Amino acid sequence: MAKNAPPDQSLIAMPSFKAVRSFVAAAKYRNFTRAAESLCVTQAAISRQIRDLELYLGTELFNRTGREVSLTAAGATLFDAAQLSLLNIFQATERIRRDKNDKRSLTLCCSPAFSGLWLARRLQDFFGANPAIDLNVVTTQHFLTIEPGIEPDIFITRIFDSRPGYLQMPLFHEVVYPVCSPGYLQAHPESNTLEGIRRGVLLDVNPYGRAQLSEQVDWDVWFALHSHGQQVPLVDATKRFSSNDFVLLMQMALDGQGLALGWDHLVRDLIEEGRLVRPVSDELVLAQNRHCLIFREELADDPDFLRLKDWLISRFS
């Protein structure tokens, strides 16, 4: 015979949802009447719910001055937590409601750099052509250790792992070259040679948190591969700044703060717009480093996924 569950004292002792909702409305509008109007209830109901909440807590939540009210210190503490909690509940219920409607949602996982420098520029075009598809974008540097509960439908990544239940197709290989702003190049014309770049302000990608993406390509690797067998010291660079945030490095390059290594698929738009330039024609072609489209096997014939896949491929062709 199954035993009854013991009483959950934390749930039993919790104030009522209606009381908390009334409190948040009153704190937001600083007036019980306006709070009542916002919740489509009477002012007396708001007053009663707040009075019960104050009795439960053993302290006043509002300073009452005429028709206006203001939060006490205890009220401010409760409002910060209650407002956020109610907002989280609302957003969760809205997500559930959206999942039950006829509109299709796909979850795409990619790096922050790809999302910020490539995808964001093109999503309006995709949504305009596919209004019935919602796209949920999750960014990470850790493709091999996705958080529990996150199960993307699609990955765009350099990782060639045998993820069970997923298929993959290659999109493009990587090409890397130096970039800077037109203003930086004008102020440092010597940067149109590799020697000049070596002595400039170098904005460098460091490997922290990026080990799962691919082999590291930084300025040390760049000059080693373009030194033609000679030792090329970097100690005489004017300055070196490093970060694992590629978007930060690109923003600094756009602001004229130095030279960065740019991945072609991420910086090509900025070059075409004239916001970045290539000070030298030298480039590093990483034919073995291919970005792939990795997707759930069950989506292989899904019409909405096929629209997204065809759209992505067309943008890389």
From TrEMBL:
The keyword Transcription regulation applies. InterPro entries: LysR-type_TF_proteobact-type, LysR_HTH_N, LysR_subst-bd, WH-like_DNA-bd_sf, WH_DNA-bd_sf. GO terms for molecular function: DNA-binding transcription factor activity; sequence-specific DNA binding. Keywords: DNA-binding, Transcription, Transcription regulation. Pfam families: HTH_1 (PF00126), LysR_substrate (PF03466). One of its GO terms (biological process) is DNA-templated transcription. Gene3D superfamilies: Periplasmic binding protein-like II, Winged helix-like DNA-binding domain superfamily/Winged helix DNA-binding domain. Belongs to the LysR transcriptional regulatory family. This is Glycine cleavage system transcriptional activator. Residues 15-72 form the HTH lysR-type domain.
